Amino acid sequence: MAEKFFSERNLRFTLYDVHDVASLAGSAYYADHGRETFDILLDTAKKIATEHLYPYYMEMDRNPPRFADGGITVHPAVRDYLRIAGEGGWINAVFPYAMGGQQIPVSVFFACQFMMAAANYSLSVYPELTSGAARLIHSFGSTELQKTYAEKMVSGEWQGTMALTEPEAGSSLGDVRTSAEPAPQGHYLVRGQKTFISAGDHDCADNVVHLMLARVKGAPAGVKGLSLFVVPKKRVTADGKLEFNDVNCTGCYHKMGYRGSPIAQLSMGEENDCRGYLVGEENRGLSYMFQMMNEARIGVGMGATAIATAAYYASLEYAKVRLQGRRLTEKDAAKPQIPIIEHADIRRMLLKQRAIAEGSLSLMIYAGKLLDLHLSGEGEERERSEILLDFLTPIVKSYPSEMGVVSTSQAIQCLGGYGYSDEFPVEQYMRDARIHPIHEGTTGIQGMDLLGRKVTMKNGKAFGLYLEEIAQTTAKAKSIAGLAGRAARLEETVELQKKVTASLVEHAMKGEIDRFLADATLYLEMAGVICIAWQWLMQGVVAQRALDAGASGDGRTFLEGKLFTMRYFFEYELPAVEGLALRLMSPDAPTVEMEAGHFDD
Amino acid sequence: MAEKFFSERNLRFTLYDVHDVASLAGSAYYADHGRETFDILLDTAKKIATEHLYPYYMEMDRNPPRFADGGITVHPAVRDYLRIAGEGGWINAVFPYAMGGQQIPVSVFFACQFMMAAANYSLSVYPELTSGAARLIHSFGSTELQKTYAEKMVSGEWQGTMALTEPEAGSSLGDVRTSAEPAPQGHYLVRGQKTFISAGDHDCADNVVHLMLARVKGAPAGVKGLSLFVVPKKRVTADGKLEFNDVNCTGCYHKMGYRGSPIAQLSMGEENDCRGYLVGEENRGLSYMFQMMNEARIGVGMGATAIATAAYYASLEYAKVRLQGRRLTEKDAAKPQIPIIEHADIRRMLLKQRAIAEGSLSLMIYAGKLLDLHLSGEGEERERSEILLDFLTPIVKSYPSEMGVVSTSQAIQCLGGYGYSDEFPVEQYMRDARIHPIHEGTTGIQGMDLLGRKVTMKNGKAFGLYLEEIAQTTAKAKSIAGLAGRAARLEETVELQKKVTASLVEHAMKGEIDRFLADATLYLEMAGVICIAWQWLMQGVVAQRALDAGASGDGRTFLEGKLFTMRYFFEYELPAVEGLALRLMSPDAPTVEMEAGHFDD
User: Fold this and answer.
1) SS3 of residue A154 by DSSP
2) How many inter-chain contacts (A to B, CB under 8 Å) are there?
3) Backbone φ and ψ of A472, nearest 5°
4) Closest residue, chain B, to A598 (C-alpha)
5) Residues of A in contact with B334 (CB under 8 A)
6) Which residues of B355-370 are buried (b: 16+ CB within 10 A; e: fewer)?
7) Among residues A302, A496, A533, A582, which is most buried (max CB within 10 A)?
8) How far is B427 from chain A (nearest CA, A)?
9) What is the nearest CA distance from A24 to chain B, expressed in angstroms?
10) What are B259-274's pLDDT values in tens digits?
11) Which positions in chain B touch A421 (Cβ < 8 Å)?
């Protein structure tokens, strides 16, 4: 294992220098906090990540969850970490005081989650899922549900899950068939199957509480007929005992990676005795669930960012010590070999990883800050940050996810044959990273969300606000020697995105919906690259200003490295938008015109 | 497992219609063969692939080689397949009659190898490696070595390997340290370590014969001091017995994929009794080895093509039967779900895979035909085909390898969560595919080969011949309605490649070698995309002509599908050259300018 799995300096640079999260303490909502408490949190999180998560990274992969006798056994580190998370107040850290939480800024909490996920993604998700589920109960559930279920979840004793997917309803949630029939006692009798439920069952929590979508008998078809239920594995009886609730674990998937977390199959109501407790009102389940889904989508982006970061450091460490080859201009074969970090192609692969990882991290912290501004802000600022985050969520989920696979693959490539062997962690990072373009809404779904809903929503208001944000950064960059050219280049690509958007929306106007959305995934890819270029310019502005102000020593080298990485992004990653735009504006649409039979032979 | 792992129709279309390999029978060298014998070979290969390789695909992954007591145990299917390959004459099929071979055209043999590799890549490499090693002995070794070692290899009784890599000498072969000291009896005493040796030891062959690079004592440093030896695990004594040759297997790597084939660590001469038998002359080892390395590089391209093909068919089969979602214009949630192949985004992902797999296959068969023209041709044609193949080898190796990872990842994406689970084979295809950008020369090494040597060799003659070949195709396409536009587009991108090349070569002229080669990997990527676009236009010409000539039924649908896939490639893949060219011609070179310390923080 590598010594380092993330950079503290970069994390603080991103939080404090780029996104100025310390300023959040100026709001009434976050008035109890400040940089000092943030630093304590970061230090504590680092300690937990280093001591309680990282040591089990490879071990949990080699010893994945086992399903037997209707239950799943996981690595004992899970129980320890859930306990630590519960006792340390991490599960409800960002909940408002009114929900018993600590009202920690989301952006700072994201930074802590980032460390946990970089240390051991599979292990990091257990309390994260619990937190989302508990929050949902607090937001929309009855006081009784909060008291009976959420409390034990927040303490880390019980696991929470998000139970949406069914064998026939993955991307198409409207096809959920799990049924719920009202019983006279006030609960509902639930019956159905769920699949791919993360942490859906395991032996390291005393109970598992599913936040489950089901359809009340007689409800409309599609998403409008979905209701949200608390469906515990064990229900709490009137006298406070735990009693089996007819939630049966029927299997556990063996997966390519992300193997430390069990993905369960569940069967509810085999004995017709599975009780579900309605959250909020009937038929409004999906709108409630979207709170948790949006959080989970951002969490996926963070997980992907974190894995890419850890893989980057593993390959960087190797590149510094592995001797191989000589400078291209060195003709004397008797001269000693040099560290591979001296080869331009290795540097390119390292810069690619760094650009993806640190660009994504900056976007994640920005997303956290938007949540913070929404929570702590007032009036227009509050609305603005909400709309912006809504707009950005598909990018926040997908750019790190898609590029995380590319980035971890580059980590393997830096190590060559050793990277492909399991003596080094990089092959596992790539296997782990591959889940992210799939779970919590595939990249295809995110593309449709961005182009089909977010770009056009409120008459393009969200898109407009986003462009304003970028313009603020380019305006700053233009006044800085050395960055003006990059600012102009970013503006050019933004203009290209506007042109592409207009050209696509034209199809929508003409009612050509298939054509409009056929390449939504590529539109998302293009938007993602531009968005990360913006994050890099933002970082470049801060770095250049600090250098101009006379930063010295280590700090100076770090800032110069930042500027090289920004240059890398503009030179090597941003040009991809040219080809994407060419495609997106082409009148030719083979995927729409062809028929399924054309794949036959 | 999917029913289908390759398309017979497409294979024959590529062989006969696109590359007209039947015409090879017109040469004296291949006069004994013809389409009829080719078809029999293809049918036999299909039967072997289906019955003896495909059934063990997942099983060999789940039960990888085990190292114990100085030896490696592999799946028993290996012994069966080696026997079948030996008895069926597959190992020396393409060897000339003079070497006891059957003088089968390489292009046809490639098609057979393609089926084996699509069925089970790990299993397919055992006889392939043996073939390359035996060929090397036949080409440069003494009659005695041929009789003593090559015969048992060709019969499938003994395994052959290519033993180059050492712990400190992977990409940098000049640093090979294994030593060879001449002994009075005529052999050499070999001492050293080798690592990452494919099929370097296993229990399904009675002996393992290594074609090994070592340095004779006193030889010059670097590649000019490397000699080639036959180093058997067991040597043949004067009375024909087998005797341990002090070649010790010291370990076996556990890998991300490609797990059916053992990658061994070897230690020679621990008892100072490891005998090596010189092949050819001292210090010319690398030039001999290049015969095997070039074959192996093409073999890697084929393996990558084959894996991408099998993954494509697995995802296609799924996309046809998996019901999920409705048409975008269908608002009635009560309507039944449709097969996902009806969604444009899924079609895009299927077309991407098909375009990569079939485009690569076409290039592989073309490469095989160049070898055939070299073997069977005369004078200028002979030289032309050799130079062309030399030029193309880095592309033939790398395009399928790099894009094979992307393509298999798209296969996973088509299956969503199921694709990430090991119930379907696609996650294994991606894990298996990941080896290809690494072994037999990483993509970085191939890029340096293309730009640093091939483009400029013989004053650019090879590049010129390549451009002539493309021009022949565009000339044909221009006269066909519906293809003229694509031909013009290909010409445009070729012009762009010429411009980029000139701009890079200018750095070389100025002696800026670091700058010249810094982005060689990206140059290779650009060249690869254009090369495959050319292969697609070639296929498009044949398909459109056949359609215009009135093809009907199934055949018509297949040809229409071909044209859709060609359109896909031009619309979705070729545009990547725009961004690459922009990068490659930019004056900014962060990877050259920065220092290793800039990665510190």
Assistant:
1) helix
2) 302
3) -60, -40
4) B561
5) 221-222
6) bbbbbbbbbbbbbbbb
7) A302
8) 6
9) 26
10) 999 999 999 999 999 9
11) 253-256, 263
The CA-based angle A385-A387-A391, given to 5 degrees, is 115
Among A168, A196, A325, the residue with its CB nearest the CB of B417 is A196
Nearest to B49 by CA among B372, B316, B306: B306
The catalytic site residues of B sit at: 440
- The model's confidence at residue A66, banded by pLDDT at 50, 70 and 90, is very high
CA distance B578 to B493: 8
Q: Is the pLDDT of residue A291 over 90?
A: no
pLDDT in tens, B211-226: 999 999 999 999 999 9
Encode pLDDT of B455-485 as tens digits.
999 999 999 999 999 999 999 999 999 999 9
Report the pLDDT value the prediction gives residue B197, as an integer from 0 to 100.
97
**Residues of A belonging to the active site:** 440
Residue A327, φ and ψ in degrees, nearest 5: -60, 150
Buried b (16+ CB within 10 A) or exposed e, B165-195: bbeebbbbbbbbebbbbeeeeebbbbbbbbb
CB contact under 8 A, A345 and B444: yes
**Nearest in space to B590 (alpha carbons), one of A569, A437, A246:** A569
For A594, nearest residue in chain B (alpha carbons): B564
Cα A197 to Cα A250: distance, rounded to the nearest angstrom: 11
Q: Nearest Cα to A95, choosing from A163, A29, A16?
A: A29
Rg (CA), chain A: 24
Q: Is the pTM of this model over 0.95?
A: yes
Contacts of B177 (CB under 8 A, 6+ apart): B166, B168, B169, B192, B215
The radius of gyration computed from the CA coordinates of chain B, to the nearest angstrom, equals: 24
Crossing angle of helices A344-376 and A106-140, in 10° steps, is: 50
Percent of chain B with pLDDT over 70: 100
Contacts of A436 in chain B (CB under 8 A): none
Say yes or no to pLDDT of B313 above 90: yes
Q: What local confidence, expressed as pLDDT, does residue A331 receive?
A: 87
pLDDT tens figures, B322-366: 999 999 999 899 999 999 999 999 999 999 999 999 999 999 999
Alpha-carbon distance values, A465 to A205, A310, A399, B69 (Å): 44, 33, 20, 67
User: Min CA distance, A571 vs chain B (Å)?
Assistant: 6
Tokens read off for A195: 């699949």
pLDDT at B203 over 90: yes
> Whole-number mean pLDDT of chain B?
97
Q: Which among A320, A447, A579 has the least Cβ separation from residue B575?
A: A579
Q: Is the pLDDT of residue B542 over 90?
A: yes
User: Which are the contacts of B3, defined by CB distance < 8 A and separation ≥ 6?
Assistant: B317
What does the alpha-carbon distance between residue B77 and residue B74 come to, in Å, rounded to a whole number? 8
Task: Please state, in angstroms and rounded to a whole number, the distance separating the CA atoms of residues B481 and A256.
Answer: 47
Using a CB-CB cut-off of 8 Å, the residues of chain A touching B580 are 575
* Sign of the four-CA dihedral A449, A455, A457, A461: positive
B394-417 confidence digits (pLDDT tens): 999 999 999 999 999 999 999 999
% of chain A with per-residue pLDDT over 70: 100
Could you tell me what percentage of chain A is helix, strand and coil, using 3-state DSSP and rounding each to the nearest 5? 60, 10, 25
pLDDT value of residue A601: 86
Tell me: pLDDT of A144 over 80.
yes
B70: region left, alpha or beta (phi > 0 left; psi from -120 to 50 alpha)? left
Tokens of A418: 């050793």
Nearest CA in chain A to B557: A598
Can you give the pLDDT at residue B354? 98
